[in-house]
């Protein structure tokens, strides 16, 4: 991809960002803080244990969250996330290792917010940062509720 | 409990609040936004399906999070939360029904932040609100990671 095309692609990607908890104006402003990333089919974004640096908002494609099992080389898909969702929120907040392995089977387009950029956002635009955090907390809280339901289904 | 005692008890409870993600100064400021609640041994704080209005920070005692199973009247404890933790974060963000039933076996002391108060906090003190949201998101994200590990352990 040539530079000019890459720039156009990234601008378009930013325009396609959707985030259920923000108004269109807030989403557009958030998008200007994000970096673009294209993921090839089959590509692993990060592995459990990798040092992490930010959250990825999914604009197109799907992302699989894989958790290792007690069998070597066998993992289960614990979540399948699509456009409007995000992955890696833990790393937005704290230097840490990745909990899970994350990959895309069919490829995906992502917008990435690094911890460093987020800290700047929280400093410069705290009200937008609060809204973003609210939306993310709501989403992760809902995922936790679903995980509890699935756990209870084993009993 | 007489009114004067109740006031003293609540003041002391606020001083005992601890929240790992905030500085002592931020914790003290947050505490001033919270209402006190005492939970009797065996008391159910809320049931799955109740309309909800806020998050409860646990100052003393333990809180059980119960998820119904497919057997009538049989639930499993999916989380056990103690001092420094919180429960009900979903309701801070959105008018909703409670996902889970929450109770205390031995009794507990809580500090409660209602959605209405939180909205005021986000308006008046957005930087403190961001820090609070960050801490809560980190905690819920870690709980989700643990739930995924437990799910993977079934395979």
Describe this structure in words.
The structure is a homodimer of 155-residue chains. The first copy, chain A, has helices at residues 3-16, 24-31, 115-124, 126-152; strands at residues 35-39, 44-46, 54-61, 63-68, 75-81, 86-87, 101-103, 108-114. Chain A has 155 residues and is α+β, with helices and mostly antiparallel strands. Chain A has a single domain, classed as Jelly Rolls (Sandwich). Chain A has four helices and eight strands; from the N terminus they run ααββββββββαα. In chain A, a hairpin with a 6-residue loop joins strand 4 (63-68) and strand 5. In chain A, the strands form two sheets. In chain A, strands 1-8-3-6 form a four-stranded antiparallel beta sheet. In chain A, helix 3 (115-124) packs across helix 4 (126-152). Chain A binds chain B through residues 65, 67-71, 74-76, 78-79, 89-90, 92-94, 99-100, 122, 126-127, 129-130, 133-134, 136-138, 140-145, 147-155, and chain B through 65, 67-71, 74-76, 78-79, 89-90, 92-94, 99-100, 122, 126-127, 129-130, 133-134, 136-138, 140-145, 147-155.
């Amino acid at each position: 991809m040539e530079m000019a095309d890459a720039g156009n692609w990234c601008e378009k990607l930013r325009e396609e960002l959707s985030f259920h908890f923000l108004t269109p104006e807030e989403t557009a402003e958030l998008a200007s803080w994000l970096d673009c990333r294209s993921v090839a089919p089959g590509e692993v974004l990060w592995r459990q244990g990798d040092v992490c640096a930010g959250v990825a908002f999914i604009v197109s494609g799907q992302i699989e969250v894989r958790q290792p099992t007690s069998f070597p080389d066998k993992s289960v898909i614990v979540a399948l996330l699509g456009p409007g969702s995000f992955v890696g929120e833990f790393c937005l907040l704290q230097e840490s290792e990745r909990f899970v392995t994350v990959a895309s089977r069919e490829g995906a387009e992502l917008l990435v917010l690094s911890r460093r950029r987020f800290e700047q956002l929280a400093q410069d635009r705290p009200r937008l940062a609060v809204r973003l955090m609210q939306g993310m907390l709501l989403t992760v809280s809902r995922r936790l509720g679903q995980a509890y339901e699935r756990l209870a289904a084993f009993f």
